[in-house]
């Protein structure tokens, strides 16, 4: 198992039953866990409604900031980042309805 923390804020938590913080244990995998695999796992296990507001194709929708251990995921390799034990992945929606 790979323990990581997944957090949602800025309105993204509404897609997960209004729960902001999730301490999860990702199952053992033949290959290393990458953010691309985590996004599919989140869609299947955490998102409770309207996954199209979170994902677009195989990545997060524009307007969702992704932080890996408080660093912008663009600096970490985005979808190819290999998850490490106790990583903290944060999804922050920067879009707000009016």
From TrEMBL:
This protein's GO CC annotations: cytosol
Pathway: tRNA modification; 5-methoxycarbonylmethyl-2-thiouridine-tRNA biosynthesis
Transmembrane spans: none
Record PTM 1-thioglycine, positions in chain: 98
Gene3D superfamilies named in the record: 3.10.20.30
A GO BP annotation: tRNA wobble uridine modification
Subcellular location: Cytoplasm
InterPro entries: Beta-grasp_dom_sf, Mopterin_synth/thiamin_S_b, Urm1
Keywords: Cytoplasm, Isopeptide bond, tRNA processing, Ubl conjugation pathway
Crosslink feature (Glycyl lysine isopeptide (Gly-Lys) (interchain with K-? in acceptor proteins)) location: 98
Source organism, top-level taxon: Eukaryota
Pfam families: Urm1
Post-translational note: C-terminal thiocarboxylation occurs in 2 steps, it is first acyl-adenylated (-COAMP) via the hesA/moeB/thiF part of the MOCS3/UBA4 homolog, then thiocarboxylated (-COSH) via the rhodanese domain of the MOCS3/UBA4 homolog.
Task of the protein: Acts as a sulfur carrier required for 2-thiolation of mcm(5)S(2)U at tRNA wobble positions of cytosolic tRNA(Lys), tRNA(Glu) and tRNA(Gln). Serves as sulfur donor in tRNA 2-thiolation reaction by being thiocarboxylated (-COSH) at its C-terminus by the MOCS3/UBA4 homolog. The sulfur is then transferred to tRNA to form 2-thiolation of mcm(5)S(2)U. Also acts as a ubiquitin-like protein (UBL) that is covalently conjugated via an isopeptide bond to lysine residues of target proteins.
Family according to the record: Belongs to the URM1 family.
PANTHER family registered for this protein in UniProt: RURM1 PROTEIN
Protein name: Ubiquitin-related modifier 1 homolog
Source species taxonomy: Eukaryota, Metazoa, Spiralia, Lophotrochozoa, Mollusca
């Amino acid at each position: 198992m790979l323990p990581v923390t997944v957090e949602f804020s800025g309105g993204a938590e509404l897609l997960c039953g209004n729960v902001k913080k999730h301490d999860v244990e990702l199952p053992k995998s033949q290959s290393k866990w990458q953010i691309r695999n985590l996004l599919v796992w989140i869609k299947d296990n955490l998102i409770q409604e309207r996954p199209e507001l979170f994902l677009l194709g195989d990545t997060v929708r524009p307007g969702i900031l992704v932080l890996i251990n408080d660093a912008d995921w663009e600096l970490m390799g985005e979808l190819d980042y290999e998850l490490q034990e106790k990583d903290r992945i944060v999804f922050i929606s920067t879009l707000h309805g009016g």
